[in-house]
Design a protein that fits this description.
The protein starts with a strand and ends with a helix. The chain contains 14 helices and 18 strands. Helices cover 38% and strands 21% of the residues. The structure holds ligand LCLJCK34 and 4-methyl-5-hydroxyethylthiazole phosphate.
């Protein structure tokens, strides 16, 4: 049975916050999203250019229409904009029994007010008492509780005030702006405090409040306990910030898709590289081209998600010569390659679509053949490596790949080097995916 979650919020034309963020979040958790739009904002990552409020009657009608036909397992509020909308929302949601998460949206990241000055009282009087959970950030918690928040103890006091004095069932004060060494959120619920910690990650923050509260709502709709829903939402938002797409010229948006995209892409990579590896094993004369240090065959996640070694799959223990055959020591795993990973991550800085590579023993004959087949070949000379890069562990391959790409000012199919003291000469084949790399390999050696 599919669960249904409702967002009562404003629209952000930039797609980063508001109902757009909420719907993407609901989808990421496999929950059917329903909407009651309160306000239309002309907004981007830099500013809010215009606000057009929907009539309170139409806001109420949207809620009634979806509850009475489709049903709502949990709901959230975001931008409520003015006192009349707040009153209409309160009167309508009171008729129903679903859990309600209240994100007390007051000011956009860009600084624009999203709640009229005279609506604060209505928010406190009419909406907060209906909340299963209120999710303020530092400044919102200060406005609701009427106290200044300097650190964790103050955040706890404010959460308690929101519950005990304003009438919410629970409150979580988010610690993004608490100047602590970690992002610590403090929940007060059922007369108990609970802390949720995550490292501060650099990334995209537009829509964090909306997406966090929507993630809690989606998980409540799925029947999770409040504490568990918050734990999952914290993990979700940390990932969304880290993998945010660098779009626009202001605060870039959270990536709600990362939550489902990364596992899906990982599966595609396993499948594609695993199949290509099986085919590689069946190439007859490949052992003649295997280097003494072994071969590897790698495939990286798409550029947005390919940040480190753990985001690139390769063959555990490499592929080694075994009589007149080749054999993978282990199978496909993320984080299993070092050298080729450094090469592909550098290559992807120039050509993000090129995500796969394989290494062979260098041979002059293969290089001549590659050129005669029209493949683009470039090289680097380890003897030309600057001393400061040589001194840095793991710096040679990134420098070499960059040098080779800049040498031809084009996208090479093959990069080779002739080795150095203790370094075996090597040839690397690059391609968009393992199938393309295999095709180039077969052209070369068959
Ligand atoms: C339509 C709309 N609703 C809510 C917001 C707030 O989003 P943002 O500025 O990113 O702040 P947080 O949600 O991250 O606290 C908005 N900008 N637009
Ligand atoms: C390309 C290359 N250079 C030295 S060893 C090697 C083979 C693959 O190494 P890894 O398994 O670390 O990617």
């Amino acid at each position: 049975m599919i669960r249904k979650a409702l967002t009562i919020a404003g629209s952000d034309s930039g797609g980063g916050a508001g109902i757009e963020a909420d719907l993407k979040t609901f989808s990421a958790f496999g929950v059917h999203g329903l909407v009651a739009i309160t306000s239309v904002t002309a907004q981007n990552t830099q500013e809010v250019r215009a606000i057009y409020d929907i009539s309170p009657e139409v806001v109420a009608k949207q809620i009634e229409a979806v509850v009475e036909d489709i049903g709502v397992d949990a709901a959230k509020t975001g931008m409520l904009s003015n006192a009349k909308i707040i009153k209409a929302v309160a009167k309508t949601v009171k008729k129903y029994e679903f859990p309600l998460v209240v994100d007390p949206v007051m000011i956009a990241k860009s600084g624009a007010p999203l709640l009229r000055e005279d609506a604060m009282e209505a928010l406190i009087e009419k909406i907060i008492p209906l909340a299963t959970l209120v999710t303020p950030n530092k400044s919102e918690a200060e406005k609701l509780s009427g106290m200044k928040i300097e650190g964790l103890e103050d955040a706890k006091k404010a959460a308690k005030i929101i519950v005990e004095e304003l009438g919410a069932k629970g409150a979580i004060v988010k610690g993004g702006h608490l100047s602590l060494s970690e992002a610590v959120d403090v929940l007060y619920f059922n007369e108990k405090f609970r802390e949720y910690r995550a490292p501060f990650v650099k990334g995209c923050t537009h829509g964090t409040g909306c997406s966090f509260s929507a993630a809690i709502t989606a998980n409540l709709a799925k029947g999770k306990k409040l504490e568990e829903a918050v734990r999952i939402a914290k993990e979700f938002i940390t990932m969304g910030i880290y993998y945010g797409p660098r779009i626009g010229h202001g605060h870039c948006p959270v990536n709600q898709n990362a939550w489902i995209d990364i596992p899906a892409e990982k599966w595609r990579v396993y499948e594609s590289l695993g199949n290509a590896l099986k085919e590689l094993m069946s190439i007859d004369n490949l052992y003649e081209h295997a280097p003494e240090v072994g071969m590897n065959f790698i495939y990286a996640l798409p550029k947005l998600y390919a940040r480190s070694k753990e985001d690139v799959a390769g063959v555990k223990g490499r592929i080694v010569k075994f009589g007149n055959k080749i054999k993978p020591v282990g199978w496909v795993e993320f984080g299993a390659s070092d050298h080729l990973t450094r090469a592909i991550l550098t290559f992807m800085e120039f050509f993000p679509e090129v995500r796969s590579a394989l290494n062979l023993k260098y041979s002059e004959e293969l290089i001549k053949k590659a050129s005669s087949l029209g493949l683009k070949v470039s090289f680097y000379d380890r003897r030309e490596e600057p001393e400061e890069i040589k001194a840095k562990e793991g710096g040679t391959i990134p420098w070499g790949v960059k040098t080779a790409i800049e040498r031809i000012n084009d996208k090479p199919d093959i990069i080779y080097h002739l080795g150095d003291w203790g370094k075996e000469p090597m040839l690397l084949i690059f391609g968009e995916n393992p199938e393309i790399v295999l095709r180039k390999l077969k052209m070369l050696i068959e």
